[in-house]
Amino acid sequence: MQDRSNEAPRLTDRQRLHWLRLIRTDNVGPAAFRDLINRFGSAEAAIAVLPELTSNGGATRAVRVPDIAEAEEELEKAQRFGARFVAIGEAEYPPMLRNMALPPPLIAVKGQAAILQMTAIGIVGARNASLAGIKMARMLARDLGAEGYSIVSGLARGIDAAAHVGSLDTGTVAMMAGGLDRTYPPENIELAEEIAERGALVSEMPFGWEPRARDFPRRNRLVAGLSLGLVVVEAANRSGSLISARLAGEMGRIVFAVPGSPLDPRAAGSNRLLKDGAVLVTEAQDVISHIRPIAGEAQQQFPPALEEPPDLSSTPPAGDDERALVLEALGPTPVSIDEIVRHTELSPGQVHLILLELDLAGRLSRQAGGLVSLVPRDL
Question: What is the pLDDT of residues 99-123, one digit of tens each?
Answer without folding.
Answer: 888 899 999 999 998 999 999 999 9
